[in-house]
Each structure stands twice: as structure tokens, then as C-alpha cells.
Amino acid sequence: MRTIIITGASGGLAQEMVKLLPNDQLILLGRNKEKLGQLYGNHAHVELIEIDITDDSVLEDLVADLYLRYGKIDVLINNAGYGIFEEFDKISEQDIHQMFEVNTFALMNLSRRIGCRMKESRKGHIINIVSMAGLIATGKSSLYSATKFAAIGFSNALRLELMPDGIYVTTVNPGPIRTGFFDQADPDGSYLKSVDRFLLEPDAVARKIVRIIGKNKRELNLPVLLNLAHKFYTLFPKLADKLAGETFNYK
Ligand SMILES: NC(=O)c1ccc[n+]([C@@H]2O[C@H](COP(=O)([O-])OP(=O)(O)OC[C@H]3O[C@@H](n4cnc5c(N)ncnc54)[C@H](OP(=O)(O)O)[C@@H]3O)[C@@H](O)[C@H]2O)c1
Fold first, then answer.
1. How far apart are the first and last CA of the chain?
2. Least enclosed by CB within 10 Å: which of 63, 85, 123, 168?
3. Once rounded to an integer, what is the mean pLDDT over residues 50-68?
4. Ligand 1 pocket, 9 CB below 6 A?
5. What InterPro entries does UniProt report for this protein, alphabetically (predicted)?
6. How many CB atoms lie under 10 A from the CB of residue 94?
7. How many angstroms from the chain centroid is the CA of residue 187?
8. Pocket test for ligand 1, best of 96, 181, 220 (most atoms within 8 A of CB)
């Protein structure tokens, strides 16, 4: 039986991933145990842990305890994250620190703490749920994009460092998904409305993620159209900026 950790476990994408992993030992991390219990109380092999993932000393103790009790972690899915779609001058210093704590630093801290254990056992897979916003920056996503670009940079280097030990590191970079993410990112619903026809469904994204567990896949960029847009953005940055700033400026 594989042992899989998922952070941000009460989120929309996590809920769909959990449904697809009935035969694995799941360790689900979230901010509210009661909420986790309501969602996953009936799951056969699950441990629910209420935790502040932004506190690295708590992560250190958690990892030590999990390895004592389970002996191994096969898969770490760093899924916790949030966004605020706002103009750069409306973002506070507190927002900057808090979003980096969750989207970037917690992902880095958990990856390095579990990555070094995986390195010892020469086995494992770290899957970082990042975002298309970490590959293509658009207006009103300066902070969110910055946290996600950093997460991709970290993951790309980590992949190279862990490659000789047979450990895989994958970044998952989806475009907009129909989840509660937008309650906070886009409270008035205007962005959601403008991208409604492009929205990915969380069960479809979860299926694609679950399928690559244990596979040596560098990145999973979704949907195909945004993956192409990312390639275009890399090849023709000036033109891409023009398009992102004018024609495709949805936020
Ligand atoms: N939805 C999208 O359009 C979209 C697109 C691309 C990438 N993503 C990324 O996909 C991942 C999953 O998001 P989702 O769509 O499933 O959104 P979601 O339903 O809002 O779930 C995200 C989960 O992350 C955790 N989280 C949120 N804010 C947090 C905070 N301040 N501190 C600690 N944990 C926090 C929460 O889990 P707990 O309540 O259990 O702590 C939350 O349920 C995120 O990393 C997000 O950035 C989402």
C-alpha cells in the first residue's frame, strides 16, 4: 500500500484526488480537523492531521513522527495554496508574506524535509501543484504568480538534485479550475465569469494527476491550449505580453 501525503486536503482539487485513491494510505493535512473529518471520516485508510504548514518546526516534528509510524512516504502532494487577484498597489506587505508562506515556503520546507528521507530510501515522488500562473504572468496576479514562479524554480532544481537517487519531482500547472479557490481569489466573480468556458473540472484534473503518480513526468500543464500559450509566451515574450495585456486580459 502506498503512503501518500496531501496538503490543503479540504480543497476542491484534493477532494477529487482523494476519491481516486481508495486503496492508498492517505495522510491528509489541513487547517481544520473537523472539516477534514466531515469530508473524509468514512475513508478506509486515512489519517487526518490539523496543522499549520507555515510553521517549519511543526513540519519537522510531523515528518519525524510519520516516519516513525509509517516507515516510509511514497508520495508527497503539495497542494495547499491560494490566490488574490488584485492590482499590485492594492496588495499589502502582510499579503505578500502570507501567500509566500503558504504557496512557496511550506511547499519548499515539506519537500526538503520529505525529499531527504526519500533520498535515503532512494524512492519517492514529490508532486507540486503549482499553476499556469507560475509559467505565464498576467495582470492582477503579480503576487500569486510570484509565489508560483518561485515554486516552479525550486521544483525544477529539486528534480535535478533528486534525479540520481531515483526520486521524481513533478510540477502540475493547471489553468483555472472550478473550485472554491475563486471565493478568495475573485470574490466578485468577474474573472470566473469571463473564463467560464475555459474552466477545468476538478475531477478531470485530479484524474490526470493521479495517473502520473509514480511516473517520471517533469510537468503536467493543463489544458492543452494554455500549454501552447505557455510555449508561445516563452518563444515570443514581447508579443505574448501584448496579447496578455490586451486581448486576453481577463482579471
Ligand atoms: N482553482 C484554480 O483555478 C487553480 C488553478 C491553478 C492552480 N491551483 C492551485 O491548486 C491548488 C489547490 O487549489 P484548489 O483549486 O483545490 O483550491 P481550494 O479549493 O481553495 O483548496 C486549496 C486548499 O489550500 C489550503 N489553503 C488555502 N489557503 C490557505 C492558507 N492561507 N493557509 C494554509 N492552507 C491554505 C486549504 O486547505 P485546508 O482548508 O484543508 O487547510 C484549501 O482548501 C492550490 O495550490 C492552487 O493554487 C488552483
1. 43
2. 123
3. 98
4. yes
5. NAD(P)-bd_dom_sf, Sc_DH/Rdtase_CS, SDR_fam
6. 8
7. 21
8. 181
- Known active-site residue 144: yes
DSSP H helices, 199-248, are 202-212, 224-235, 237-245
Predicted model pTM: 0.96
Count structural domains, the chain: 1
The C-alpha cell that represents 117 in the structure block: 528521507
Distance between CA 176 and CA 168 in Å, rounded?
Answer: 25
CA of 75 to the centre of ligand 1 (A): 19
Q: Residue written as cell 500547472? A: 173
Rounded Cα distance between 101 and 108, Å, is 10
CA-nearest of 94, 95, 198 to 141 is: 95
Torsion of Cα atoms, 127 then 134 then 220 then 71, to 10°:
0
CATH for 213: 3.40.50.720
Distance CA 89, CA 2 (A): 45
- Give the tens place of pLDDT for each residue, 107-129: 999 999 999 999 999 999 999 99
Task: Name the grid cell of 156.
Answer: 525544477
| Structural contact between residues 97 and 147, judged by C-beta atoms closer than 8 angstroms | no
Give the Cα separation of 159 and 170 in Å (integer): 8
Cα–Cα distance measured from residue 141 to residue 129, given in angstroms and rounded to the nearest whole number = 17
